[in-house]
């Protein structure tokens, strides 16, 4: 349902994941040359993990009647975001080792969006658990 706070958290996750498509994750500046920006779409593993995060977050919004499944999918999204963060770091270090030593690597502020997504998915899972506990406590009174 739209009025639940975890829906807002999932929408924020979707928005942050969509922002990653259009912003560079890091830039390489070679001395005497122009700046080369690397986007998440340049690497297929980063692209696929981001697409899965968007898709599962959208699906999870509509699973409001099945809270235990929603929690499990939320933890899976959490793991996907961790994998995305690790893959971003690995691609950065791989590119850094492949280039000459006079290259300057510049992290974008948007590189840290997966960490924001981790916070919001954790808040969403916490809110879903709170709803589940509320339903269980109401069932005890019947």
Unreliable segments of 5+ consecutive residues: none
Determine the fraction of residues in helical runs and give it as a percent range: 55-70%
Number of helices: 4
> Could you state the order of secondary-structure elements as H and E?
HEEHHEH
Give the overall average pLDDT. Answer: 86
Secondary structure category = mainly alpha
Beta strand count: 3
Q: Rounded to an integer, what's the Rg over CA atoms?
A: 19 Å
Share of β-strand residues = 5-15%
> How far apart are the first and last residues' alpha carbons, in Å?
25 Å
Specify the overall morphology: elongated
Report the major sheet: 3 strands, antiparallel
Sheet with most strands: strand arrangement: 2-1-3
What does this entry look like structurally?
The chain has 4 helices and 3 strands. Strands 2-1-3 form a 3-stranded antiparallel beta sheet, with helices on both faces. By secondary structure, it is mainly α. It has helices at 5-22, 44-61, 67-98, 113-140; strands at 24-29, 35-39, 104-107. Helix 1 packs antiparallel against helix 4 (113-140) and helix 2 (44-61) packs antiparallel against helix 3 (67-98). Helix content is 68%, strand content 11%.
């Amino acid at each position: 349902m739209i009025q639940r706070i975890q829906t807002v958290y999932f929408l924020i996750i979707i928005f942050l994941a969509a922002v990653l498509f259009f912003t560079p994750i890091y830039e390489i500046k070679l001395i005497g040359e122009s700046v080369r920006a690397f986007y998440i779409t340049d690497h297929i593993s980063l692209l696929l993990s981001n697409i899965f995060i968007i898709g599962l977050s959208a699906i999870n919004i509509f699973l409001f009647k099945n809270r235990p499944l929603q929690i499990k999918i939320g933890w899976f999204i959490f793991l996907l975001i961790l994998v995305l963060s690790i893959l971003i770091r690995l691609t950065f270090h791989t590119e850094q080792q492949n280039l000459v030593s006079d290259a300057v690597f510049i992290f974008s502020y948007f590189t840290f969006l997966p960490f924001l997504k981790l916070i919001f998915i954790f808040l969403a899972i916490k809110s879903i658990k709170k709803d589940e506990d509320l339903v269980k406590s109401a069932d005890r009174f019947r």
